[in-house]
Specification:
EGF, ECM_structural_protein, mainly beta
């Protein structure tokens, strides 16, 4: 199959016409060859037939186009491959250096350097003329602080600044500024004794020390009495003013706490001020004594109470013995033993306990605190019918003494104390049994020589023996009391042999 192509040329466009309807059947090799001979490229960028965005740049290619991101370069740079590169103005001869200058490229620009150098202090302008350099503006701090820079032809000079400072200030060593005068450190202040100098900008201030206040009239610092100014607020108990301060103290029985203000109770008992017992109380202490002691006037010492001498009444029946803190009762060394109550003495019955020293033929009679050994022997013409009774044997017809002697002799033992109330009935005697018409006569026939005893008839058949005189000391009596019984015209006598023992009422 053959094909025929008619081409028409237009400006910046390549156009190819293939009139044959069956051109699609041409093989690719022939088509490419045909296009290379007869077809021209279309510039989409110039014909504005591209599809690039406003920020993109259209770049034409053979048979197509490319959209590149548009980059704007600053002066002195040009875009190459989407990168801003420095333009060498000296190379491309876009500089404006004169004939007397040499172009020297710099990044983003260029410099025109003179071909001939000027002397020190001068520089060439764009026309090659040497002009003065103003070092005061071109150099960084050509003069030190405190100096003014003055430009001269070809050079410059530094002239010291003249600074005027107000009162309380002076010029710095460089003369560049005014600095404060520390009157406190230099000692040029006029603060009084006891005042503290505080430096201020351009001046100073005189303050009083802590605990002092300024007296404007006398122009001195006076002590503040904190105790008067703040009554009851500084110390728990006692406030004492001191120069410039105060001190808290405590009354007796208290100690100052760690905070220096409050008071704590002192336990005085820790120092053992009492001889016996100590009880701590708030702010003080109290001494106590154990039973049997009393607290002396010094309030500290305990002394033994002598219960034996100070007691009201009798503590002990016999003897009180004072001991430390108490007392003990004692009994006589012989004849008594202490009762269970520890106060009274109980008589020892030596006759019952067998602690007597009576012989075999004697009878033991117990007394208060002692005993007696008694012998009950019958006289001649009498026989012993019991331990305490003797009866008369028949008398010869011609013996009047025997016939007048008592028909019976009976032994009795009586014991009383010296404090017995006088007169006291101590013995009764009468017939047993008694009959109507009986009549008795009572008399003491022996042993009443000192008249301590008397007899009294109670009725016709009864008589009594009385102790009528006080016996002040322990004493033993043996009295014979005879009773004559008149019965039916017959007279019969009986004898009572009585042992009366008066013992001490106080042991």
């Amino acid at each position: 199959t053959s094909a025929c192509c008619f081409c028409a040329s237009a400006a910046s466009q390549n156009t190819c016409f293939l009139p044959f309807s069956n051109h699609k059947t041409m093989n690719n090799e022939f088509q490419n060859h045909f296009m290379a001979l007869y077809c021209t490229n279309v510039d989409e960028c110039a014909t504005n037939t591209h599809s690039c965005r406003p920020r993109e740049r259209c770049v034409n290619t053979v048979g197509s186009f490319v959209c590149e991101l548009q980059v704007t370069c600053p002066a002195g740079y040009q875009l190459r491959n989407s990168v801003c590169e420095d333009v060498d103005e000296c190379l491309v001869r876009t500089h404006n250096c004169g004939l007397g200058f040499v172009c020297e490229n710099t990044v983003g620009s260029f410099m025109c350097k003179p071909k001939q150098k000027c002397i020190s202090g001068f520089t060439q302008d764009s026309h090659g003329n040497c002009i003065d350099i103003n070092e005061c503006s071109s150099l960084d701090e050509p003069c030190g602080s405190g100096f003014n820079c003055i430009n001269t032809v070809g050079s410059y000079s530094c002239q010291q600044k003249i600074i005027m400072c107000s009162n309380g200030y002076h010029a710095s060593p460089s003369g560049a500024k005014c600095i404060d005068i520390d009157e406190c450190q230099m000692g040029t202040h006029r603060c009084g004794v006891g005042q503290i100098c505080h430096n201020l900008p351009g001046s100073y201030r005189c303050d009083c020390q802590t605990g002092y206040q300024y007296d404007a009239l006398r122009k001195v610092c006076t002590d503040v009495n904190e105790c008067w100014r703040y009554p009851g607020r500084l110390c728990a108990q006692t406030c004492e003013n001191t120069p410039g301060s105060y001190h808290c103290s405590c009354t007796s029985g208290f100690s100052l706490a760690f905070d220096g203000k409050n008071c704590e109770d002192v336990n005085e008992c820790d120092k053992k001020p009492c001889s016996q017992e100590c009880a701590n109380i708030y702010g003080s202490y109290q001494c106590y004594c154990r039973q049997g002691y009393f607290l002396k006037e010094d309030g500290h010492t305990c002394e033994d109470i002598d219960e034996c001498s100070q007691s009201i009444g009798n503590l002990c029946a016999f003897k009180c013995v004072n001991v430390a803190g108490s007392y003990q009762c004692a009994c006589p060394p012989h004849g008594y033993i202490m009762s269970a109550n520890g106060h009274t003495c109980r008589d020892i019955d030596e006759c019952m306990t067998g602690t007597h020293n009576c012989s075999f033929g004697q009878n033991c009679f117990n007394l208060q605190g002692s005993f007696r050994c008694l012998s009950f022997n019958c006289p001649a013409n009498y026989k012993k019918v019991s331990d305490t009774r003797c009866e008369r044997i028949s008398c010869p017809a011609n013996s009047l003494d025997c016939q007048n002697s008592p028909t019976r002799i009976t032994y009795y033992q009586l014991s009383f104390q010296t404090n017995i109330i006088i007169p006291a009935q101590v013995f009764r005697i009468g017939p047993s049994p008694a009959y109507s018409g009986d009549h008795v006569v009572i008399s003491i026939t022996k042993g009443n020589e000192e008249g301590y005893f008397s007899t009294r008839k109670l009725n016709s058949f009864t008589g009594a023996v009385y102790l009528q005189r006080r016996v002040r000391e322990p004493k033993d009596f043996q009295i014979d009391v005879e009773m004559k019984l008149l019965r039916q015209g017959t007279s019969t006598s009986f004898l009572a042999r009585i042992y009366v023992f008066i013992t001490s009422s106080t042991m």
